[in-house]
Amino acid sequence: MTQREIMLKKIGTYKFVLKDLELYLDTHPKDEMALSKYAEYEALLKPMVKEFESRFGPLTVSSDNGNKFLWVKNPWPWDIEEDD
Length: 84
Hints:
The protein has helices spanning 3-27, 32-56. It is mainly α. It has one domain (3-78).
């Protein structure tokens, strides 16, 4: 697994955790532990996304990179050759 793939997997994991916590907090908005965990994972995600984008290019069209179409130049999943 490449460093790019490892970072993408971690970013996806952190985003999943944040979305799950958002759904929980919709019904439990005063749960201090959940709010704390949300802040913790958000703090982990931001620098990882920043590092990924500085090394490999933007993740989304909304990434603040000065060129909103640069993200489409990244390899698409079907462009990556697997080692068999």
